[in-house]
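task queued by scheduler; priority normal; single chain, no ligands, no partner chains; default sampling; output format set to structure tokens
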Amino acid sequence: MNRSVVLLGSTSLLVLGVLVPLTGASPAAAIAASAATTDPVNAVCPIRGNEVDKESPTRQFKGVTIGFCCPGCEGKWDTKTDDDRMALLAKHAPEAVTAIAGAGKGASTPAPAEARMSGNDSAMKVARAYLDACGNADVTALNALFLDKGRATVSENASDEGSWETYRDHHLLPELREMPGFAMSVTKEDVQTFGTTSIVRQIGAFTVPDPNHKELSKKYLAAVTFVIVDDAGSPKIAHLHWSSRAEKKPDAKTQTDTGTVNDICPMTADKVNPFHTREYNGLKVGFCDGDCALRWDALSDETRAKKLADAIAGITAKTPHGAQPGHDHGGHEHK
């Protein structure tokens, strides 16, 4: 593609199709200013999960530029609610969430994602590589991800499993043999970096064959936390914590006896007050108060399904009422 810079007059430049006022600035400064405001802050498309193509259309969102992998993705983005957009960014491009937080604090325009987030990106790749290697039962690939010689530790469901080597031989590999093709579906993923150390969290679910009924499978909810450090220039897992439990499936009798399918509010994780309910897909959903029920009414169906699943599983994040977006109790007590 031919790129041109055309001098229109003493007050403006046409830069890559964008009219940039000069107002006394040099042409080089004007070009730099234009590039700084149009570079996407994300390296991965939030719609398809592919690498961003800077030639594709972009969208401005919460003070930053969001890029996509191909024309057409921006149209799908336009149909999403802000909550759904943030969820997509958290899953595919957590660096964009960080950039949005910075923009909200009045920070200067973030640098391109590939320049800013190399530490986050490499840590996220290690975490994803771990799940892929588990699915393939690839011992060589797994070993390459961890600090060696007993320097990496593992815990599972709050129990100390010892070194990575001990966990690998006595726990992980025997389990993978029992569930070939293991695959965890990740629904939430984020990363925080502190100097040369990163913490990656992945939340999702996986299914395994029922040992008593081979034709059936059981679904488990899972959360994985990785502590990833720099080891001679390579990111390595220093600690892994895995937790999982069988999914709680509500049945008609349980719902009739308890009144609601969930024990905790899907909005705040507070205890459900059976007085405040909504019917959803044939289930009676309970809330801690009327305000939460009203906020539920405003959610997209996709967001409701996710919040209800978390509430049934008991993993809804505890959220103070005063911290709820658009929430104002005005000091009244729960009824």
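post-processing summary
- DSSP finds eleven helices and 13 strands in the chain.
- The chain has three domains: 25-116, 118-246, 252-323.
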